[in-house]
Amino acid sequence: MTPGNVAVTVVVVLALVFIFENTQSTKIRLLISEVTMPLWMALLGMGVVGALCGIFLGRRRG
């Protein structure tokens, strides 16, 4: 394992702990409509979107 892999693993574990510690429901506005959902779902969804964007942009550079 390289130091980069260890760093990514630590960041992912910390992000997952943060996401699953926030379990209360919250209102989220999506442009016009408003939905009520658990905060962990919104955080996890945005994390997945961010990871996919990072993968996509990383592949375009290389």
Automatic annotation (TrEMBL):
<dbReference type="Pfam" id="PF06305">
    <property type="entry name" value="LapA_dom"/>
</dbReference>
<keyword id="KW-1133">Transmembrane helix</keyword>
<protein>
    <recommendedName>
        <fullName>Lipopolysaccharide assembly protein A domain-containing protein</fullName>
    </recommendedName>
</protein>
<feature type="domain" description="Lipopolysaccharide assembly protein A">
    <location>
        <begin position="21"/>
        <end position="57"/>
    </location>
</feature>
<feature type="transmembrane region" description="Helical">
    <location>
        <begin position="35"/>
        <end position="57"/>
    </location>
</feature>
<dbReference type="InterPro" id="IPR010445">
    <property type="entry name" value="LapA_dom"/>
</dbReference>
<keyword id="KW-1003">Cell membrane</keyword>
<keyword id="KW-0472">Membrane</keyword>
<keyword id="KW-0812">Transmembrane</keyword>
